[in-house]
Amino acid sequence: MRIALFVTCLADTMFPEAAKATVALLERLGHEVVFPVEQTCCGQMHVNTGYQKDALPLVRRHVRTFAPYDVIVAPSGSCVGSVRHQHAMVASSAGDTRLAARAADVASRTYELSELLVDVLGIEDVGAYYPHRVTYHPTCHSLRVLRVGDKPLRLLRHVRGLDLVELPDAEQCCGFGGTFAVKNADTSTAMLADKMRHVLDTGADVCTAGDASCLMHIGGGLSRLRTGVRTVHLAEILASTELAR
Amino acid sequence: MKTFLGMPSTAPRGVGHLRGAEPFPAAARKALADPQLRRNLKHATTTIREKSGKVIAELPDWQQLRDAGSALKADTMARLPELLEELEAAVTSAGGVVHWAADAREANAIVTELVKATGHNRVIKVKSMATQEIGLNEALEAAGIDPVETDLAELIVQLGHDEPSHILVPAIHRNRSEIREIFLREMPGVDPALTDDPPVLAAAARRYLRETFLSTKVAISGANFAVAETGTLAVVESEGNGRMCLTLPETLITVMGIEKVVPTWRDLEVFLQLLPRASTGERMNPYTSMWTGVTPGDGPQDFHLVLLDNGRTAVLADEIGRQALHCIRCSACLNVCPVYERTGGHAYGSVYPGPIGAVLSPQLTGIEDNASLPYASSLCGACFDACPVKIDIPSILVHLRTEHVEAQKRPTPESIAMAAVAYTMDHPRLYASAQRAARLSRLAGRRGRGLPPPLNRWTASRDLPDPPEQTFRDWWARR
């Protein structure tokens, strides 16, 4: 299958390992990955902070860039959530019904990584090997906007060598929320403190999730406290094999 | 012919409790530093969440009930004027008197005059959000009338000269030793040997309230529902103190937000299943009191219904925001909100706290008076999932943020930065060079600690990762 990678601006700029892992994983599974270089950002930060008008050209760019592809994947629940639930709305609010229709069409072919693997490619055992104690944080947008359910966990349970430990109060937000983490930094930190406590309680070496943004937040806190616990994107775990080690 | 009557007005300033003294982040900062509050909130919200989750799981048709509740509210809002007139006619023909109050001031004046006309100077009150919203107790006190809250938690709040911090559990921020102190200091005729044992505290309140019930001739209530078809009012409660107020006095005055009307009697079937399971985690609430006008020889012989707008028509005018009027005040969104769980209700500055408050208060007052509230959410979506009438709170939050940004008359540092980022993101070459420049952020020091404001609010508690040697697109171009 020919799959277009929607890398997301955050993974592109700050967490390229998650994006490279997505490419490596899909190629290992026998698929062709293409990277449309005209892509930049889905505009979610603008929409969620109240700058819908500034987001409009970004929505237009995203739709134009990805319209030619049948299957699009992103290593992010949040950015796919924005494509699916915000792009058409931003276009409609601006009175551009044609763009809204095209955006809805692109959205219908856009998948978060675990959705692509489990729903589209029908695979739960991707042949990965990752000998670490891992806990999984279900990010809010993958859970409540995309409804990925236990797909990421099903993928993780098939990873050889991986000791999966359940995260207490897993479904509570880590406190990131984009500009929320800056505008309401104290409340965000209080939420993060509880999330970190739960992660540490599991005794895991690694906290994983499907979103680089939430991992940046949780990882930023775990690093500040010198806990030694790392954050690793789900794609990187699924891309790991015995050969690669 | 159509006549434009202008935009409906918002709730007036200087009266009632819809506006806080400071923006949410500043108020939240103080609340976060209160360990007792944090412990109480964590315990209470966790307990209610678990209880509610259990009884909701018992119903195979919970999602269909939510859909029905949502559809009934949407239908009601679409024909609110005719339903209110139908309600007025039904209440009037059943012997009640209906009053229309455009805002908090009018409602307070109407109620004060009605109480004065009875010749009594004390009223008993059923727990009511609408009368808290308009500051009715203060208005009555200013007119020499003594209002006594009879809901136990509201009584604690009132005696403590305090503000409620939760829709359902208004004294959630108090512990039993604080309650004991408040009772000893403020409750008339209290036993000086009072302990902080909860049954002892409840018994003290009961003794005080029983005397008050038996000697007070006027009661004031809110309403959970009003049936347009029959003119029936409904109050749902747990303690039975509401029923005392609704049945013992001679005069009953009910203040109700205009959005509380439902079209027909059978619509209650849906809401009376949704409300207790979503709010207290009970299959059925202990007391559901319903009354239709006046029944000769039984209950209050003088019944007044005050229909309150106070900004609701302005909310109704907003196609996205109007969903907030569907709220049945169950407080499920508060109990699942990770922000509310940590800050409590006072940080929101309004009688309506939590996610529903963050979308309702700014709409009732106009966004300029509550501009920080729509940002008091990480948009995690837990509120939308929990709402028994499926109010899409995250979408309304984003809508109100947009409204706030677009109402700004001149550019702000944030709007300039946002426009610059959007411009860069729309020019891939510029974006690629900006990415490379991001590596210069190493100049900001290890773990980004030298970032300028407002970004240093991130690094106050979290490290920034070191920027990678190579962006993904550079790697892709060279592979």
The share of residues in helices of chain A is 40-55%
Report the principal-axis shape of chain B.
globular
Largest sheet of chain B: 6 strands, parallel
Beginning-to-end CA distance, first to last residue of chain B:
70 Å
Mean pLDDT of chain B: 95
Q: Note the gap between the termini of chain A.
A: 27 Å
Number of strands of chain A: 8
Largest sheet entry of chain A = 4 strands, parallel
Give the number of helices of chain A. Answer: 14
Per DSSP E runs of 2 or more residues, the count of β-strands of chain B stands at 10
Oligomeric composition of the shown chains: heterodimer
Count every helix of chain B, treating DSSP H or I runs of 4 or more residues as helices: 22
User: Which spans of chain B of ≥5 residues are poorly predicted at pLDDT below 50?
Assistant: none
| Main structural class of chain A | alpha/beta
- In helices, the fraction of residues of chain B equals 40-55%
Most extensive interface between two protein chains, with residue counts = A-B, 65 and 58 residues
- What share of residues are in beta strands of chain A? 5-15%
